[in-house]
Structures are given as structure tokens and as C-alpha cells.
């Protein structure tokens, strides 16, 4: 039987990772957080002191390091990476790195390879339009800028990261613009994707809606 692929796209803070992770758990599928892969490269760029504008050095780094997932956890060169990739420094720089065509090519090849022989739930910015164009179910999660900013603020506050709601809102608007306007695999909803506004929905409501939609597609 052909492996089931669920592609979840959407802007920052729309709930992609939370929903994808819980959905994979419920379905016993492999969860692949593609955003974490780009954040992982960004984290390594910052840690190694590489200039964010030095694309050649960034591409060479991406070719050398090994990014992998083990039971949903991100590993870079066999080192477990967790909250480090969620820092504000990484969040402010990841869109600059993700828009480099060569970086996206390296990451997309790795992502497709992961999905070849197993059922997956994969979330990111261009999964339905570029990475898994043959996915049986494509979703586009969205929410208002205000709600996405509030969620991010709460997340950082719980991790004792000091920032302001206004600063986060401006950062999200900037990231949206960069993601939507980049020349390589911009953030757009796939023509055959289903849009879900998560602003006023609970996680359980969204999960149940997706499971229902999946049943319609594969049964």
C-alpha cells in the first residue's frame, strides 16, 4: 500500500507544528517538522559566527552537516537540538536563510527521502506546493496576525524569553512578507489544499476536522 502523506502549510504561528505533531501521534505517522530543519541550519550559522549574508558559506555548511529526525526529535551531526532553534535570534534570521535556492534544494531532497517509505505528516511553508506535491491530503493553516503574535509571545514568555508583543508582531509581519515574496518556493496555498483558520478553534477541533478530511480522501 502506498504510504500516506499529509502536507500542512501556513504562515508563522498558525499552529502548524502543534497540529502536525499531535496529528502524527494520533495516526501513528512520522512527524517531520521542516521548519525545524531550516531553523537548525540557522542555529548552526549563528553558533559558528557565519555572516548571514555569506550565502556561499551557508550553502557549504548545509552540505556538510547531517540533519535528521529520530522519533520526532531533531539531530544535527548526531547532537540532539531542542529549544535552541526557537530563540528570537534564530526566528529573526531563518527567513533569510530559507529563501536561498540552494538551501531549499538541499532540504527538499532530504525531506522527500524521509517520506518515501513511511506514512508522514510534514509541515512547513512549501510542502503541498513543492515538497510533497503528490500528498493525499494538503492543508493550509492560517490565523490572524494578532492571534499568531499572541501565541508566539506566550510561548516565549513560558521559556522566560524577554520580548514585547509589538516586537513579535512586527517580526511576524516581516517574515510573512519575506516568505510570500521570495522567488524560490514562496508561501502560497496549493490549489488542491483545504484552508483551515485556526484563530478561534481548539486543537481538538482542528485534529478531528483533519482526521475526517483524511478519511474522505483515502477511503
From TrEMBL:
<keyword id="KW-0067">ATP-binding</keyword>
<protein>
    <recommendedName>
        <fullName>Cytidylate kinase</fullName>
        <ecNumber>2.7.4.25</ecNumber>
    </recommendedName>
</protein>
<dbReference type="GO" id="GO:0036431">
    <property type="term" value="F:dCMP kinase activity"/>
</dbReference>
<feature type="domain" description="Cytidylate kinase">
    <location>
        <begin position="6"/>
        <end position="212"/>
    </location>
</feature>
<keyword id="KW-0547">Nucleotide-binding</keyword>
<keyword id="KW-0963">Cytoplasm</keyword>
<dbReference type="InterPro" id="IPR011994">
    <property type="entry name" value="Cytidylate_kinase_dom"/>
</dbReference>
<dbReference type="GO" id="GO:0005737">
    <property type="term" value="C:cytoplasm"/>
</dbReference>
<keyword id="KW-0808">Transferase</keyword>
<dbReference type="InterPro" id="IPR027417">
    <property type="entry name" value="P-loop_NTPase"/>
</dbReference>
<dbReference type="GO" id="GO:0005524">
    <property type="term" value="F:ATP binding"/>
</dbReference>
<comment type="similarity">
    <text>Belongs to the cytidylate kinase family. Type 1 subfamily.</text>
</comment>
<dbReference type="InterPro" id="IPR003136">
    <property type="entry name" value="Cytidylate_kin"/>
</dbReference>
<dbReference type="GO" id="GO:0006220">
    <property type="term" value="P:pyrimidine nucleotide metabolic process"/>
</dbReference>
<keyword id="KW-0418">Kinase</keyword>
<feature type="binding site">
    <location>
        <begin position="10"/>
        <end position="18"/>
    </location>
    <ligand>
        <name>ATP</name>
    </ligand>
</feature>
<dbReference type="Pfam" id="PF02224">
    <property type="entry name" value="Cytidylate_kin"/>
</dbReference>
